[in-house]
Amino acid sequence: MSRDPWPQQSGTRHALPYPPTEQELSLHDYLGILIGARWMITAVVAISLLIGAAVAFLSSPVFEADALIKAEEETNTLSALDQVNSLFADQSPVNAEIEFLNSRRVLGRAVDNLRLDVKATPLYFPLVGEFLARRFQGGEGDLAKPLLGLVGYSWGGEWIEVTELNVPANLLDVTLTLVILDSQRYRLFGPDGGLLLEGQVGENPQPLPGTAELRLRVSGLQAHPGSRFNLVRQARLTAIKALKDRFSAKETSRQSELIRLTLSGSNRQETAVILNEIIRIFVEQKSRFLSVEAERTLDFLQDQLPELRAAMERAESALNDFRLKQGSVDLPLETQSVLKSTVAVDAQTKELRQNRDELRQKFTEAHPSIVALDAQLTRLRKEKRSLISKIKDLPETQQQMLRLSRGVEVTTKLYTELLKSSQELRVAKASRVSNVQIIDPALTSGEAVKPRKAQILLIALLAGLFIAILSAFIRRALELSVYDPNQIEARLGIPVFVTLPNSKAQRRLKRLQKKSSDDVSLLAAMQPDDPAVEGLRSLRSTLNHVLTQVPNRLLLVTGPKSGVGTSFVAANLGVVLASGGDRVCIIDADLRNGRLNHHFGKKSEPGLTEILLGNLTLNDALQKTSLDHLHLLPAGGSVENPAELLMKKRFAKVLDTMQTHYDRVILDSPPLLEVADAVILGQHAGAALLVVKAGEHNLSELEHSVKRLWQGGVELRGIVVNGTNNDQRDKHHPRG
């Protein structure tokens, strides 16, 4: 429901012919907001695209080298370990290899071998220097000409090779500056600008006093004298971390045993070299690791073999002695079956215990492999107790024979297996063959993988659109100005007679006004088919219907503040009324800053001021226009007390006289909220129109304007909304 803040008085307020309603924003409204903010949206998107283009084209290119290796599962020399590992078949051995690849043992050696902890880079001009240097197409030995004579920066073709850089601990990870003196000499400066040393290419310069720990050797360089290079000696851990951040190792698919290695870097050739070095170190370290493991297991077996051999010989001697003493003893088939089962259980138990002892050298009791071995040993112990219960039912001679035979077979089998494993380990140790195969060596892609220009530009475009659209809606939400005529009607309870769109033709006429004295700024006369003029014709029809019961022929045209278009509406409405055959006179009643005469190309003096001062008659002050039925009474000269002049009886007599000669007299008044003149003028008028400009007022300002007119007894009949766009105009149709 709309709110009517003004007391209802008979004869002073006119109810709307329809109930005003509060309307929610529709898709049409949202489109209108976007169209209204189109220039801001265009600017924001353009800025966003410029930033995206700068990032895409000025960022250093990043290349990626990749390689493929296969890490085969290690086979155990002891068969029981293979049984245990089968319990954990879903745990890929590749995970351990990937961790090994990312270890400091591998990456640290690559850093040391390739001196990756020493960084030597040319100093480029900010933002665009590196981009220009990359585009330099000179041949070998050529240098780009310094731009604008800035020889301190590198512009293309510069390089330096540092083979040694040792610094004290306080200068680790600190940028030092090397300045080229000529093709062979250079100077090194610290972070504070102090000279650290001066040297020559290919030599180890003597450090200055206080820099004894500093060592630098430059094996080659190419740069203009005065060019600068940034030198950094990174801490070893810092260099390893930087390499690890660029390095990636992932299994291609589950249980495939294939590992894809990638390394990113700004130098195409160097990136492949570094990745190949990582692979070489990894293969070498794996070979050494396997050799050490084989040697450790071999030492363990060498300790076990003598004991097993002695146990085997004792078992054989005991069996032979028993046979000599008892003679030949035949074992029934059932007893032979028990013997075979007992021997098998004892052999497995013995082997599992040896494997457990070997694993305990590497892992704790809680390791899954050891837990699995303990579970197998528990099962074998239960099985052995069952076999022992069967043996107890045999005759004593058979029991003795069974125990001795079992001891011989168990020790013989174990000794044979360990001897075989020992021989296999000797071969493995001698060969030192790694379980890693290089499927594809490292190669670098021809094109840079970063920055992805198309993706960056697309993101910049979308981000710009999002920010711009969001800003447009936020600005509209925070803005208190009123755009919608329906909202004005719903809040004030006063009908909007017409909405006048912005007119490009009117802006052109204003520019031409300075070059001609004709009525060139009157839109209704020069462009009668303009949409704004059509709106004024609609207003004329509405006024002919609404003003039939008014007490006089005076029509006040006022606005809350200056710049809303009251003079434009008054002048062009006068033209439209005169074109319809009415006799019309337009009075510029703004005695403070009257400018209505400019619309007609006339002078402002003499005018109304001179009439009210008694210096001129009405007939002498009236000015003819290009239309036969339209006259103009300009404001005249400025005075100090215009309100007092308008309150004199002389002004009322002038208005009475004019009503006898014209069908409609239009009063163009000064701003309503700035001075009291408009209310004084409105008290003479039979009706008043309030001209407001779309987006220039808040509801509080409009309510205050209506309240001031009501308090002054002014008959406000309707509102004219000026300066709307097409979307706002389409939403509101003039009502008669």
CATH class descriptor name of the largest domain: Alpha Beta
Which stretches are low in confidence, meaning pLDDT under 50 for 5 or more residues running?
1-22, 76-91, 727-736
Q: By CATH's scheme, which homologous superfamily of the largest domain applies?
A: P-loop containing nucleotide triphosphate hydrolases
In total, the number of domains comes to 4
Structure in words:
The protein has 25 helices and 19 strands. The chain has 736 residues and is α/β, with parallel strands linked by helices. The chain folds into four domains: 27-59 and 451-478, no CATH class; 63-281, no CATH class; 290-441, no CATH class; 485-731, P-loop containing nucleotide triphosphate hydrolases (Rossmann fold, 3-Layer(aba) Sandwich). It has an eight-stranded mixed beta sheet with strand order 12-19-18-13-17-14-16-15, sandwiched between helices. Strands 2-8-4-5-6 form a five-stranded antiparallel beta sheet, with no helix packed on it. Strands 9-10-1-11 form a four-stranded antiparallel beta sheet. Helix 8 packs antiparallel against helix 11 (396-431) and helix 9 runs parallel beside helix 11 (396-431). The longest helix is centred in the middle third of the chain and has 59 residues, at 268-326. The chain is elongated. The chain starts with 26 loop residues before the first helix and ends in a 5-residue tail after the last helix.
Question: Short description, anyone?
Answer:
The protein has 736 residues and is an alpha/beta fold. The protein has 25 helices and 19 strands. The protein has an eight-stranded mixed β-sheet, with helices on both faces.
